Amino acid sequence: MQKRNNDPKAKTLEEQVIEIKSVVKVNKGGRQRRFSATVVVGDRKGQVGLGIGKANEVPDAIKKAIQAANKNIVRIPLTDDRTIAHELLGEAGAAKVVLKPASAGTGVIAGGAVRSVLELAGIRDILSKSLGSRTKYNMANATLKALKQLKTPEHVAELRGKTVEEILG
């Protein structure tokens, strides 16, 4: 049976290559060189995914990374379609990322891999601080882990048995 991709969402996702690096495995006969690619995909409306792929050629590695990223897509609830609801801390390996909501017009204050993940998630106003290791994959992964912890005011109100107005003050 042939598998077909009839998902209209898959065509609307943007891809951004964060990193391409050469990796080497030492064998008895010498060094075996391959390429590793890290890619972020997102629709700029609250969906984002991260993937890594390895292959003998760069285009194949990117293709594999895109497939892996599409499998790891998560949905992020955005506040006012531009920022996050509350402060977050994400960790991956030795990398730590602190994300704070920002007022309208602030823009994305982030660097490198963190900026790529936030922009493709559709976040337009946010402050971030990177702590610890600066490994690109770990920074992107820490950002994604932080965004997964995001709770909407509606969800928090439901958990506490209160109304949304009581939560927001």
Quick rundown:
With 169 residues, the chain is α+β, with helices and mostly antiparallel strands. The protein is 30% helix and 35% strand. The protein folds into two domains: 8-74, Double Stranded RNA Binding Domain; 78-156, Ribosomal Protein S5, domain 2 (2-Layer Sandwich), CATH 3.30.230.10.
Task: Explain what you see.
By secondary structure, the chain is α+β, with helices and mostly antiparallel strands. The protein has helices at 58-71, 112-121, 136-148, 153-160, 164-168; strands spanning 14-27, 30-42, 47-55, 74-75, 88-92, 95-101, 108-109, 126-132. The model has no long low-confidence stretch (mean pLDDT 90). The N and C termini lie far apart (56 Å). It has two domains: 8-74, Double Stranded RNA Binding Domain (2-Layer Sandwich); 78-156, Ribosomal Protein S5, domain 2 (2-Layer Sandwich), CATH 3.30.230. β2 (30-42) and β3 form a beta hairpin. α2 runs parallel beside α3 (136-148). The protein is built from five helices and eight strands. It is elongated.
Order of helices and strands: EEEHEEEEHEHHH
* Average residue-wise pLDDT: 90
Tell me the major beta sheet. 4 strands, antiparallel
- CATH C-level name of the largest domain: Alpha Beta
The fraction of residues assigned to DSSP E strands is 25-35%
The name of the CATH topology of the largest domain is Ribosomal Protein S5, domain 2
Runs with pLDDT <50, length 5+?
Answer: none
Q: Give the distance, in angstroms, between the N- and C-terminal Cα atoms.
A: 56 Å
Number of helices: 5
> What count of structural domains?
2
Question: What is the total tally of β strands?
Answer: 8
CATH-derived architecture of the largest domain: 2-Layer Sandwich
Overall shape: elongated
Provide the helix percentage: 25-40%
Strand order within the widest beta sheet: 1-2-3-4
Radius of gyration: 18 Å
Tell me the structural class: alpha+beta
